[in-house]
């Protein structure tokens, strides 16, 4: 640190010490006389020194420091003024010994959650693989392929219409792509200590019985295969505790006026006078008193505790959060190397197989073995992929998506495009006129 800046810091610290009492209270005697409960105001603050907010903008220290000798003094002044502005204190964290201990919830804490994995899935003893029947899908025609190309070009403003109108279709190769999807509807649970103001509501305390384990508490989703969440108070875990934030008083010292009930007038800086046209005049904001009533506590010097909301007591309990969500995996078979699989996933097709079970059986008798292999791989992955979650229901679907590879000739260009899905989407990465030179809006 430079020597001159170090000296400036020492000078500021010395001046702060000399003017500390003045900056804290310009009228110490009248301030004490105004507080009807001086002892209780001090007693309810466990850290009286830390809760004092020094307002340097009201102190003679400002007049000394605002005569800048160096740039360092101005920076220090700005730092002190910024850090001394009163701010509403955040609620303090509860002490660790505030919450009780219950069997099955030893790792539950405030601000964090933990739930052991659910019990392993046990299939029913008479579980047998159901029959699997598959429907057939249809392919598209040449006219549908040409119409699809016209629609594709019209959706791209800079694509020329000439190739679509003049192309000669040489061959149409119909085929089908197969989209297999596996959806696992899973349930996860977590627990966390919570508290809320106690207003006399019923308390389900441990005297009513032992707390049930997290995975035994009943909870049902509003709809299967629909993401949702609910919060449940764990039975027999509620207790009444004194508020840790206000020490069971219900209120705290006002953070703006530090319990005085008034603040120095910012217009006249506490003097009661302001500069007039010819001479100093009485300040109209404070009526010449030099101070105004605190607008935070309305002159009472204390504010309601934001943790217990003035109730002085808290209800503590364990909150169980149950979350339902879908996990989806896809497997596409039958596309060429040129047609991206994600296009098949988003396209319209014919559902040729669908099944919903607590645990589905992999498809095993479809004529395309790649579908059978992909189904078994995804079913095996889902069975062990989320050990902390419970699979409630699984759904597997197989869709057949028609795909036609169209070979065409336009002038000297020989190329191809693909028409896929019942919505006749087109994939034409090599379309001849893709720039503005063939733009149909020019």
Automatic annotation (TrEMBL):
InterPro entries: SSUH2_homolog. This is Protein SSUH2 homolog. It comes from Desmophyllum pertusum.
């Amino acid at each position: 640190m430079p020597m001159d800046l170090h000296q400036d810091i020492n000078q500021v610290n010395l001046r702060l010490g000399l003017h500390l009492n003045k900056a804290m209270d310009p009228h110490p005697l009248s301030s004490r006389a105004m507080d009807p409960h001086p002892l209780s105001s001090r007693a309810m603050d466990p850290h009286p020194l830390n809760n004092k907010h020094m307002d340097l903008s009201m102190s003679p220290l400002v007049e000394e420091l605002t005569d800048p000798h160096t740039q360092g003094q101005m920076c220090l002044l700005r730092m002190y003024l910024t850090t001394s502005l009163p701010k509403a204190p955040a609620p303090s964290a509860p002490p660790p010994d505030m919450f009780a201990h219950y069997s099955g919830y030893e790792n539950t804490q405030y601000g964090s959650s933990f739930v052991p994995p659910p019990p392993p899935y046990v299939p029913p003893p008479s579980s047998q693989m159901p029959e699997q029947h598959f429907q057939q899908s249809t392919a598209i025609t040449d006219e549908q392929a040409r119409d699809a190309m016209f629609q594709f070009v019209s959706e791209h403003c800079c694509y020329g219409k000439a190739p679509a109108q003049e192309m000669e279709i040489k061959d149409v190769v119909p085929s089908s792509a197969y989209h297999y999807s596996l959806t696992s509807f899973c349930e996860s649970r977590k627990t966390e200590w919570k508290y809320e103001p106690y207003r006399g509501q019923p308390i389900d305390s441990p005297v009513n019985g032992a707390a049930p384990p997290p995975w035994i508490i009943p909870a049902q989703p509003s709809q299967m295969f629909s993401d949702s969440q609910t919060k449940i108070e764990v039975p027999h875990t509620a207790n009444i505790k004194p508020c840790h934030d206000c020490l069971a008083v219900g209120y705290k010292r006002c953070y703006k006026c530090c319990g005085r009930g008034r603040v120095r007038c910012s217009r006249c800086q506490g003097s009661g006078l302001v500069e007039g046209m010819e001479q100093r005049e009485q300040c109209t904001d404070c009526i010449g008193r030099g101070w105004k009533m605190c607008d935070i506590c309305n002159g009472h010097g204390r504010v309601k505790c934001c943790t217990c909301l003035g109730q002085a007591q808290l209800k503590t309990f364990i909150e169980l959060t149950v979350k339902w969500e879908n996990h989806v995996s896809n497997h596409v078979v039958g596309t060429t190397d040129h047609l991206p699989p994600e296009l098949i996933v988003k396209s319209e097709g014919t559902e040729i197989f669908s099944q919903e079970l607590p645990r589905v059986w992999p498809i095993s008798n479809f004529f395309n073995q790649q579908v059978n292999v992909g189904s078994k791989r995804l079913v095996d992955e889902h069975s062990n992929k989320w050990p902390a979650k419970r699979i409630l229901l699984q759904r597997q679907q197989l869709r057949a998506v028609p795909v036609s590879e169209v070979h065409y000739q336009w002038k000297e260009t020989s190329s191809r495009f693909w028409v896929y899905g019942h919505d006749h989407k087109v994939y034409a990465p090599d379309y001849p006129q893709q720039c503005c030179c063939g733009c149909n809006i020019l």
